[in-house]
Every structure is written in C-alpha cells, then in structure tokens.
Design a protein that fits this description.
- It is a single chain.
- The chain has about 550 residues and is an alpha+beta fold.
- It folds into 3 domains: about 1-190, no CATH class; about 240-345, no CATH class; about 415-555, Heat Shock Protein 90 (2-Layer Sandwich).
- The chain contains 18 helices and 11 strands.
- A hairpin with a 4-residue loop joins strand 8 (about 475-480) and strand 9.
- The protein is rod-shaped, with a radius of gyration of 43 Å.
Length: about 550
Amino acid sequence: MRSSRWLSLFMLILLHATFWLGIEHMWARPLLLGHLGVFLIWQPLWKSETRLSWGNSLFIFGVSLAALIWLNWWILAFWVAGLFALVGARAFSFYARWQRMYHLLVMAYLLAVLLLHIAPHLFDLPAFDEVSRNLMTIALPLMLAVMALIPVEREKPDAVQAIDFFYVLLLFTLLTVVVLGALAFMTLNQVGYLDALLRTLFLIAVALFILGALWHSDFGPFGLKSSFSRYVLSIGTPLEVWLKQLAADAQRDSGPREFLEGATEHMLDMPWVVGMAWVSEEGHGLQGNSSPHRVELFDEDLNITLFTRQAIAPTVLLHLRLLVQVLGYFYQSKRREERLREMTRQQAIYETGARLTHDLKNMLQSLFALASVAQNEPSKAQPILQQQLPVLSQRIETLLGKLKAPASETESREIELPAWWDALCRRYEHRGIEWRLIGEGATSAIKVPAAMFDCVADNLLENALNKRLREPALHVQVSLDANTRTLQVSDDGSAIPDGYAQKLLRTVVPSEDGLGVGLYQASRWAQQNNYRVRLQNNQPGQVTFALSPDSISRSDE
C-alpha cells in the first residue's frame, strides 16, 4: 500500500513537471516517457506479478511511441481524463478514511489540470495563461505536498480494490461531456470559457438529478431501477443457464464425484472458459483444454483450476469466485448427504444388532430359568420343559432368521393379539408373574407386530425379574388392555431414581439391572411402529411401564 502511494504521487509529479515546462520543451517527452513507465508499474489493471506477453509489450510500446511523436493537447486531454476515470473508479473501493481522501485529492488534481490548464490550451484561450501559470506554479504543487503528507493506512483484509470498468466508462464519459459541452457553448453561444463551463456543469447536474429521481420506484412505471435490474438480470445468460444445470445436477441422486464431473462439464459452456481441472478427496478430473491463462480457486478441500481464453479482469475473477463457491456449496452438500446415508446405514445395522443381541440375552435368561428349575426341582421340570421347549425352539428359529436377513418381514409380521398373549403367558408362567387381560372379547380382530411386542415385553419382564433378585418380595403384574392394545408391566418395588427416570427410554442408561441399552432399543423400535414405551408411574410400591399406540400415549399425557 505504501509503495503504491509513492508510485502514484511520483507519477503525478512527472506529469506536473511536463505541464509546467510545456509540451514544446525539450524535456517534455522524456518526462512523459518516465510518467508512462511509472504508470505501468502503478497501474491497477493487471496484477503486479503478471508477466506481459511480447504482443502486449509491443502494443504498449507502439501506442506510447505514437503518443510521444504526435504529442498534442488532445492526446493529453484524453490521457488525463482516462487517469481521472481510473482513479475515480478505484477511490470508491477503499474503506480507510485517509486512503479515500488521498484518491479524492488525486481526482481533484486531475480535474483541475484538465479544466483549467489543458482545456484553455486546447481551445486556444490566451486570457487563461496567467491563471494556468499560477495554478501550475502555486496551487497544484501545494496540493501535491498535501497529498504527500497524508498518512498511509492499512486496508481491511476483505477490502475489494478491483477496477469496475462500468465506473471507469461512466466517469470518462462524464468528463468528456463536460469538456465538449463547454466547447459547444463557446462555439454556438459565443460565451467565455468559464461561462460555458458553468452552463455545462449546471446542465449535467440537472440531468443527474432527474436520473436520480427516476431511479427510485416512487415514480411508478417511470422508475429506472426495475428496468436496469431486468437488463442486468436478463434471462438466458450463461451464468443463469449454468446455475439451472447445477441445481438440476444437485437434485439427482448421485455421488460427489459424479456431481463434480457433471458440474465441471457444464462450466465449459461459459464463453471465457476453455478448460478446467479439479482435485478433491473424491479424486481428480480434467475437462476441456489447457491454456496459458489459468486461475486457481479453492473452497475447503476442493481445488479448481480454470483455463481461460485470455487474461481475465478482476470483476470477472469475482464472478468466477462466486461460481466456485456455489459449486463448492453443492459439492459439500453432496458429501454430507453421502455421510448421512452411511451413518443411517450404520445406525440401522447397529439397531438391528442391538435388538438381536437383547433377544438372544432374553432367550438365554429363559434357558437359565428352565435349567434352574430342572436342577432344583427335578420332579416339576419334565412338564415345564415339555411346554417351554417348543416355544424356545420357535424363538431360536426366529432369531436365526433375523441373523440371516435382518431386514426380513419377520420383524413386521403381525399376529392376532390373543395368540401373542397366550404365547407370552406360557413363556413366563413358571416365573411367578400375575397376568391380567382386559377386554378379552375384543381381541379376535386385533393384530399387533409380534417381534416388537415380544422385544418390549421381554425387556420389561426381565428387568422386573432382575429387580426381584434384589427385592425378593417383589410382586410383578402384567396387564393387557385389548381394546386399546396397551401392555403394562408393574411391580410394587422401589422407584427408579430420578436421574435415571428422566433419561430412561431416551438414551442409554448404565445400570446393573440392565435398564439401559435393551429398553432404549425397544423404545426406538416401538417408535418406528407408531407405538410408544413410557414410564407411566414411578412411585415407591407402584412402578409401571406401558406400551401403547402413539396416539393413545399422547392423549393420556
């Protein structure tokens, strides 16, 4: 920033020395040549690290040589107006106060040189010789000294200092209208230069005021803002077509790599892009052809290299950055979708495995109970084994089927409620549990998901029976309301601690009684079948878990 300030100031000093000596002086052309050289170092059109090709270098040299050979006031007027437009277009991109003040003073200097020194010589006005001499000797050197004393401020990191060629063209046209308008008034109305200049400035001010008024929408159909917006955002531009294709590619069920390949292929339809290459964690790809002009853009782990037909302007670079940001956003969305699908797949595998593990645990506990009966009471073991072994065989067969095909239809198979209730009672009839059925006559037409009901009932009953080991006098009751398909498992033991009760059924709760993983998985399974497991009552002497349809559970709450 500091070097750019001194370069621009030195460039103005060389230009001022040329005007002070006069264009006919022997040192005028060498000073202008030095001025052009400093301008090429300072210029904001190309990046400082850009290497000019031989063609561009010869073009610049040829234009400069022709301007110096045929040097006249019209060429100088054109050059100063161009400098004014470049500095003016850049001045509005600075955020720091002193930086903006410096560029405004540069604009004032160039405007004064053009209107009060070049134009009088251009129109051959000898009456302004003394004014121009005082201007070049006293006023403008003082202005250059003030510009040299202005402190240099650091710009914000996000300050955009690109040249907007629309502003350049607008300022250049405005300054040209001022000079030519003054000439027109002097020629047509035979008035003095200052009078013609004031008339021109007044008419331009009135025209700008009218355009500013028409720009706002308060004037109904005469508002220019909507018309200009429709022109700028015209339908059918390459950018809009590419965005539509990008959105269409994003809606397809494809992976990140396929999406990148399709999006980069569509980007080749841009008129200034001839090829591109991309590198990411998904791999790499190359589309189109390479060229000497390349732009590298990044978005997180996505690296895109664009090959253009020619060196691009800073404004086009901003558009390309926007395009890459949009492309990177959709690309990262595709990656997140893929990760979510993988997480969903792993979650399904985990939940299925957890349910099967707890089914196996409950079955082993039933086998352990039968083995205990056979060991402690051999006389009663024979009829109990004859009754329970077929049930256990059926459960083992069902479990093996789930292991072979976890997503099979056995998990969603529905059976009649009386059949399920009878099977549950037979499985646990020797465990000292009280059974109660409500609405027995209404059960014939009611069906329930057998696997889910078995999982919830087994977990609730095994937890209650494990609790009986710590509280031997515990009484366990199981009741079923056939009308509402509500299953309740109650015991008259101690209440579940509040810290566990609030987390129970919502997350995994570590407990020696097994109240965590199995019951949580059973609750998740019930939710997937539009049922709900809840802790209906948690009081000392009355602890009740209930399984019921989701609509009934919410109405009870």
